[in-house]
Amino acid sequence: MTKVLMKGNEAIAEAAIQAGCRYFFGYPITPQNEIPAYMAKMLPKVGGSFIQAESEVSAINMVYGAAGAGARVMTSSSSPGISLKQEGISYIIGAELPCLIVNIVRGGPGLGGIQPAQSDYFQAVKGGGHGDYHMVVLAPASIQEMVDLVMDGFDIADRYRNPVMVLGDGMLGQMMEPVEFKERDIVLPEKPWATTGNKDGEPRRIINSLFIDAQALEDHVHKLYRKYEEMKKNETRVECYNCQDAEIIIVAYGTTARIAKNVIQMAAQEGINLGLIRPITLWPFPDDTIDRWAEADHTKAFLTLEMSMGQMVEDVKLSVNGKKPVYFYGRTGGMVPTPRAVLEEIKKIREVM
Questions:
Q1: For the chain, first and last CA: distance in Å?
Q2: For residue 271, is it left (φ>0), alpha (ψ between -120 and 50) or beta?
Q3: Radius of gyration of the chain (CA)
């Protein structure tokens, strides 16, 4: 199959179209603007609809409406824009509607800057909106993986009637790599719950996230959590790289995982054996995998590498559960860790092991 050179954001948009997405609602914000621009150009050519909403709040509520009618729909934004969508995301989850949400993360807090960051981890995996809920959160580390995970994300969303988030960053969104769009049989599932009109005396279909009765709401949340347990069982994805016999294991995702692989190669030249655990799903988090490597005698410590002040490190510590020390190294505000700086941090850890 022929590979094409594409920018990350445009590859996301093309993957969504090839996955059967025909509706996109969004609002411009750097560094993800190429996604809505591509959708505005290409969706009408395949019979789809693009609407630039008057705000992020409007956009996520348009997603709610299209998803409720059974459409394959997505939105995208960057950090402050995703914050504005949080109420709508909570409503969509409460109403059990499938959709894809893309966050190309930039530095914060506030308006911050337009450089890449990973400081939206808490927002994505802990539930940035109100109420008890979760989304499957996919973290690509290459443009090819962006393509593949966007396509998988729509299927996962439909499978569980729940939003899926693809969490990238400004570097992945703007860089270019060769990608291929593998042939898939796109079969959109039947959606007997969708509000497509009351025909031929069919029972009424109601999309709703409001439960006045407390017991009814608790029962609904319990139902959602049974679904989340199925997600944990079936959707957890992780890459283990060079972990066999590694004395220190780096835990990183997305762009920082790419950096970590360079660090591993540099360290090997100096006789230092490092490994990498790369969560591909940030939720569900691969706790069992991390716990397994924490049990290994050769593993002396973990280093969590992030473009933040330390967010995923909390989940790594919970997974390790005190069996081995967990260290952290990060840059924030749009600064990207260099392989050399990470290797120097590794050497400091080895001195105290």
A1: 48
A2: left
A3: 21
List of residues 6+ apart from 57 with CB closer than 8 A? 84, 85, 87, 88
Gap between the Cα atoms of 340 and 345, Å rounded: 9
**Which of 86, 258, 108, 78 is CA-nearest to residue 168?**
78
Q: Which of 71, 99, 92, 48 is nearest to 196 (CA)?
A: 71
Give tens-digit pLDDT for 204-241: 899 999 999 999 999 999 999 999 999 999 999 999 99
| pLDDT the model gives residue 183 | 86
Backbone angles phi, psi at 274, to 5 degrees: -115, 155
Omega into 284 within 30° of 0, i.e. cis? yes
Both tokens assigned to 269: 């030249």
pTM over 0.70: yes
- pLDDT tens across 156-185, in order? 999 999 999 999 999 999 999 999 998 888
Please give the structure tokens belonging to residue 48: 């789809």
Q: Which SS3 state, helix, strand or coil, does residue 66 take?
A: helix
Domains within the chain, CATH numbers bracketed: 4-188+208-235 (3.40.50.970), 239-352 (3.40.50.920)
- Whether the pLDDT of residue 198 is over 80: the answer is no
**d(C-alpha 15, C-alpha 133), whole Å:** 27
Q: Which helix (H) or strand (E) holds 73?
A: strand 73-77
**CA nearest neighbour of 85 among 95, 93, 94, 77:** 77
Would you tell me how many other CB atoms lie within 10 Å of the CB of residue 200?
Answer: 4
Q: Average pLDDT for residues 4-15, to the nearest whole number?
A: 98
